[in-house]
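Late entry, 1,3-dihydroxyacetonephosphate complex.
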Amino acid sequence: MTMRKILAANFKTNHTRASTRAYVKALDEGMGAMGYEGEVYLFPPATALDRFETANDIRVGAQNAYPTVKGSFTGEIGLEQLEEFGIETVLLGHSERRHLLGESQSFIANKFAWFKERDFRIIYCIGEPLEVREEGDEAVRRYLVEQFEGIDTSYEKLILAYEPVWAIGTGKTATPELIEKTHAQIKQLCDAPLLYGGSVKPANIADILAVPGCDGALIGTASWEVESMLAMLSQVKG
Ligand code: 13P
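Prediction complete; structure with ligand written out below:
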């Protein structure tokens, strides 16, 4: 079965409410102009979440959320804040939250279960740091297995993103061979659609999407300019 590729843009801590609005408008127009029919996920910062009227399939998700409807969780947002804008997608397990913000596997698994219970689409990120990659394939496999602990790998609204930590924001992309090999390892653990992330950009996206077992891309830096995002979408084949 051939499936249209899934592209997702992670704004991280970039863009404002105003610039996100302008971005979505330009993205929607650009998708219309090129007749792009696939789905595109967009993860703006929480302050820019909103309802966007778009002609094309642009799905806005949250980069993070706390497993609560509402309550006393300073600095976090919960279901009530997401429902205001009809948000039904959440990104979980991103390495920046695991490593910079200290989210443990059990906390992430708890969030996963909570948002699964509420029928959210979940883009779940996994990926090894450099020291693990340097230990070799078996160490990587063990590391990835641990990142599936407590995760329902058969959840039908799950999309995986393999993002090797050493390739994120570094300009160092994993080679197509390495992506293929690692995606094959991951597919043995979970056969949800699997995106690659880590320094994806207009110059390498075609090669990455051509890798067997790669169902799309989760893009950080190169997604922040809408022209660059459109340049990547224009290379996606159905
Ligand atoms: P970069 O594309 O900037 O490497 O970021 C990847 C990423 O972390 C997407 O979630």
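The chain has a mean pLDDT of 96. Will revisit in the morning.
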